[in-house]
Amino acid sequence: MAVIKRISSPAKGEEKSEDRHEVHAEKMSSLGHFTQAIVHDIRNSLHIVVTASAMIKRRSDDRSIHSHLNAIDQTIERTNGLIERILTFANNSEDHLGIVDIADSINESISLTRPMIPAEITIDWQHPAEAIHILGDHGQLYQVVLNLLKNAIEAIGHGNHGSILVSLNKYYPWAELRVKDNGPGIAADVINQICEPTFTTKEDGNGFGLANVFDVVEKHGGTMEVASPVGEGAEFIILLPLMPELNM
Length: 248
Known about the structure:
By secondary structure, this protein is of the alpha+beta class. It has five helices and eight strands. It has a six-stranded mixed sheet with strand order 1-7-8-6-5-3, with helices on one face. It has a two-stranded antiparallel ribbon with strand order 2-4. The radius of gyration is 20 Å and the shape is globular.
């Protein structure tokens, strides 16, 4: 039987632990300051790469070299976009809310992730037949799916055969997003801690990814659960409130 734990804020009428949320907020604030310092160093490094790329372009007429340099420039542009999203999160800046078709955010996340997916891992994106709209921040929602996909890839592990299933459905008044992998799953003794800032079970992890997912889902008025039956991988289930006038 699946072990399901509520990770996000309890629904109305349920008992709520104020102390836990205060601790979570303090950790997120500390993590924000730490992130700003790292981002500053990353930007300095990217500036060096951009300068070197431009110099090589000016000194070479080789089309093959120019093609590789263009790929570098495009990657840096995407990285700068990601940095802006991270800074928005770190600074707790005002959200850029608008009407969002969640499928578009998922499409963007999957497109960016595909080049990083090992050949042994397949991804199945079950696209909804109709648009599913919510009031939200496209950049933040894109980051939610990106983090969940990255988490699934790392859970399966490089060199291992595996699969990731992404699905989006509408169960009025909710949009339901599921991301499931067939990795080793999450141990029962840590399943309640996986979205805490700085908590990680990975040797090279930092605990930032799932903490970010938790924060964004909560800001959008949603809830998140994780199911991890023994030997059947892990599945993240996110519910986000629909826009009634566009989803009747």
